[in-house]
Amino acid sequence: MKLPRTLIFGGILFATFLFAALVSFFWTPENVEVLKITSRFKLPSVINWFGTDHFGRDIFSMIMVGARTSIAVAVVAVGIGIIIGVPLGLWAASRHGHWLDDLIMRGNDLVFAFPSLIIAILITAVFGPSAFNAIIAIGIFNVPVFARISRGGALSIWNLDYILSARVAGKGTFRISAEHILPNIANLLIVQGTIQFSLGILAEAALSYIGLGVQPPTPSWGRMLADSQTMISFAPHLALFPGFAIILTVLGLNLMGDGLRDILDPRIRRAQK
Fold first, then answer.
1. Domains observed in the chain
2. What's this model's pTM, rounded to 2 decimal places?
3. How far apart are CA 226 and CA 228, in angstroms?
4. Torsional class of 88: left (φ above 0), alpha (ψ -120 to 50), beta (otherwise)
């Protein structure tokens, strides 16, 4: 089967930043916590590929460590949404028409009623700015997304013949959900996961931009943009490189999501034949 171009291109984009994030655990061109005031505002060169910032830190090294920060926060936040939201959605689908189904879905509607970014800002402002609180704030709003996706996908499967046969055979709702429902909605969850992953990176950058995300001296793309906003007129590279890092990473994830949908959605596969 030929892979979609969007999946290939998006995968290359995201893999580039993922590779940079992994390498940053072991090596960076320069130590991002060391200040070199005499070397500040250097333009991109052979020594400093992306130049240096107002503290003389190597921007390329900060982009590498910032990729690690953004990806780690987004992965854990999406993981929270999947671990909590998917079981809730499957549980609601297995109790369709029951008061428990209504309770779970109305709870999801309540969370959706609040602007996600504003509530995330409120949570981090109340409990203090940190990577952990940013993860919790972003993860909370992933829960209803995956719960709704799981419930919607599961409802169309529960009335199929082989599910009825499994119930007649004595299998309980938990076993049916785990063995028969979940594998059949995995494609929906994978595609939605890439979308929420990209939104998580944007949310982390937004929280760091206003000082409520990852705290210095740990580099963050959002914090780099915030620090550069008063210096764009004479040092535009301070904002361009972290800005492009966010754009390209999110673009790569969105293209991957489109490509995975083209592969995993049977309706699209049938239309392409």
1. 5-16+72-223+250-272 (1.10.3720.10)
2. 0.85
3. 5
4. alpha
In one-letter notation, the amino acid at residue 203 is: A
Residue at 75: amino acid letter:
V
d(CA 221, CA 69): 9
pLDDT tens track for 181-216: 888 888 888 888 998 999 999 988 988 888 888 888
Phi, psi values for residue 189, rounded to 5°: -70, -35
82-91, 100-109, 168-177, 258-267: range with highest mean pLDDT = 82-91
Instruction: Name the nearest CA neighbour of 83 among 217, 198, 182, 218.
Output: 182
Distance CA 30, CA 42 (A): 14
Query: Could you read off the pLDDT of 146-181 as tens digits, one per residue?
Result: 999 998 888 888 877 777 787 777 777 788 888 888
CA atoms lying within 13 Å on the CB side of residue 206:
18
| H-run or E-run covering 20 | helix 5-23
Contact 256, 7 (CB under 8 A): yes
Residues 116/119/121/127 CA torsion (nearest 10 deg):
-140
Mean pLDDT calculated for residue range 37-61: 86
Q: Encoding tokens for residue 187?
A: 């494609």
Query: Containing H/E element for 109?
Result: helix 99-112
Q: Is the peptide bond before 183 cis (omega within 30 degrees of 0)?
A: no
